[in-house]
Amino acid sequence: MAVREIRLYGDPVLKTSCDLVAAFDHKTEAIVADLLETTQLPGRAGVAAPQIGISLRIFSYHVNSVAGYLINPEKLELSGEPELLEEGCLSVPGLWHKVLRYPIASLSGYQLDGSYATIAGEGLLAQALQHEYDHLDGLLYLDRLSPEERKEAMKTLRQTDWFMR
Question: Can you tell me whether residue 16 is helix, strand or coil?
Fold first, then answer.
């Protein structure tokens, strides 16, 4: 297990739709272990495989002292009235913007032992599930901003000291 470096906005892996995990083997176990360890650091609610440079449909989460992961997640179900919530992303450090997210979400996928599991939550967990699921489809939260908010975000992003110019 290792804490992996987070890929930053501009890295092509973040804008690529991820491949399904075909084999639940030692390689997949290692990826899950690295994701879980990387997510354990303070201030992190989730990490998706593309954020550590791996274009596979896996993510981990750590919300309210509950940690877990899903492999090949599917069937994202959303309910409640969408709300504008402050959101940031490890791949876009230092930027926070309001994103429309549903207050209740559930997502189903697989565990390493091949069992099928559903993760359901409200509040921050619901937001994290939506955010990480987006990563697996090559979407960043910036892609969900209103046009005005996105314009402002991109202006701020270009002024950061980490952005690839």
Answer: coil
Alpha helices in the chain (DSSP H): 26-39, 124-136, 147-158
* Model pTM score: 0.95
Check 74, 81, 122, 132 and give the catalytic one.
132
* 3-state secondary structure (DSSP) of residue 96: strand
Domains annotated on the chain, with CATH: 12-158 (3.90.45.10)
Strand partners, 97: 87
Segment 102-120, tens digit of pLDDT: 999 999 999 999 999 999 9
132 given a catalytic annotation: yes
Secondary structure letter of residue 91 according to DSSP: T
Kindly report, residue by residue over 84-103, the tens digit of the pLDDT: 999 999 999 999 999 999 99
